[in-house]
Specification:
single chain, two-stranded antiparallel ribbon, two-stranded antiparallel sheet, 17 helices
């Protein structure tokens, strides 16, 4: 394959990503929004959503498609947050308590989800979506009737004079859960960027000295680190973040440490025996089973990990800057849809995903969310068009991914049948 064909194949493979890059650039220009505002809002949304999107990677690698049932992990987190608020545990201890309660709840729900999805192999993406809708009904019953009636709660969280939990719970003030993670420490964005670029360069040098990477990869990493630091040192670009045209843009240090730890976890687990099982099962269940791998058990573990991580991601989301309230009956509803759309926008597919694709997809997907209303108002004179466009993109990206996956699977089956026919001659 020559360079031109390789380039065409690459563009075809990542067509959705390039389309979103073009749309994002267009919308930022057309919207007329201040670039400092757009940058700060983008980073704020990355703080909130990156953890949840990263929680989708392991089931995808294990061949289970997009785990839309992460919605159920979000429900587990919201149950934990409700109990934390009810008991009056505030600040970082409250977040840690909510995370501790979420762990067994989400793991148990993940176990049930995994066992159900093992009964519908080949239809896991649609199956997990339906499971999310089914679980929402049980969640509504729990919060409307069981909590406050069968399970007693105090008046701070229940509807006075009726059963059930209040529609909206405040996380600010004496509740003390608002920005309990985000507010611990902040670091200027540019400082964090230079530290990351330096760390990447140092890590590449160490790996080269240990003979774990080639000279070519070392050179590429050093060049990318230099370009990354150099681009953001250009005065007009640096001015966007350093406060010249607005406020200094800062990153919540602990939140980003958690995000980077999850990226490291996703990368590290794939080098373990369990991670190799995930890959083997994702590539071929038949071959994996013949190799002595318990396919069903491996798939269940993948879903359990994803559900727990999604629950913790929902806690990160709920406490983040700019939220401040807990929408009891609706906070979880779009978690799976938006996370699934975001990772697909980043270039992932139903059977392949990486940390970089998750982060890029979150960035591009939410750049449209920030600018769509203003761009629609400028183009069509009606900001409501932006809302419809966002919904169209969310469902459209998922539909395109499913169609492309089905088409690619059909092509692979056809190629396999042709090979068998040629061998039988």
């Amino acid at each position: 394959m020559n360079n031109q064909n390789k380039a065409l194949a690459h563009v075809s493979k990542y067509a959705v990503t390039y389309l979103f890059i073009a749309l994002s650039a267009l919308f930022i220009v057309v919207s007329g929004l201040d670039i400092n505002y757009v940058a700060s809002q983008l980073l704020l949304r990355l703080n909130r959503n990156a953890f949840i999107v990263l929680a989708l990677i392991i089931p995808i690698i294990a061949g289970m498609g997009i785990n839309f049932a992460i919605t159920i992990g979000a429900m587990a987190a919201q149950i934990a947050l409700l109990l934390t608020i009810n008991w009056g545990v505030t600040g970082a201890p409250g977040i840690l308590l909510a995370a501790a309660i979420t762990l067994p709840l989400a793991a148990f729900f993940g176990l049930l989800i995994g066992k159900l999805l093992n009964k519908m192999k080949g239809q896991e993406t649609i199956g997990s979506l339906i499971l999310g809708y089914f679980a929402n009904g049980a969640y509504q019953l729990l919060f409307l009737f069981i909590f406050g009636t069968i399970i007693p709660l105090n008046d701070n969280v229940t509807i006075v004079g009726a059963s059930g939990v209040q529609n909206t719970l405040n996380l600010t003030g004496k509740v003390g859960l608002y920005t309990a993670i985000d507010g611990i420490a902040h670091i200027p964005f540019l400082t964090a960027l230079y530290i990351i670029a330096g760390a990447l360069a140092c890590a590449a040098v160490v790996q080269y000295l240990l003979k774990k990477i080639s000279v070519k990869r070392l050179a590429v990493t050093l060049a990318l680190s230099a370009v990354l630091a150099g681009v953001f040192s250009i005065p007009p670009i640096a001015a966007i973040f350093n406060g010249t045209h607005g406020r200094v843009i800062k990153l919540p240090l602990v939140t980003w440490m958690l995000i980077l730890l999850l990226c490291l976890f996703n990368s590290t687990i794939m080098r373990t025996r369990l991670g190799q099982k995930f890959r083997a099962v994702g590539q071929s269940q038949t071959v994996a089973n013949a190799s002595g791998i318990n396919v069903d058990r491996t798939r269940v573990i993948a879903i359990m990990i994803s559900t727990v991580l999604a629950g913790w991601g929902q806690i990160v989301f709920m406490q983040s800057d700019g939220i401040g309230t807990f929408q009891t009956y609706a906070a979880h509803e779009q978690v799976g849809l938006y996370a699934g759309a975001a990772i697909l926008v980043g270039g992932a597919s139903i059977d392949r995903a990486t940390n970089l694709q998750a982060m890029v997809g979150t960035f591009l997907f939410h750049s449209l969310f920030i600018t769509a209303q203003s761009a629609a108002s400028a183009l069509f004179g009606d900001s409501a068009v932006g809302e419809y466009f966002r919904a169209f993109l969310s469902y459209g990206v998922i539909a395109v991914a499913l169609i492309m996956y089905a088409w690619r699977s059909a092509q692979q089956r056809k190629a396999g049948q042709l090979n068998l026919a040629e061998q039988s001659r």
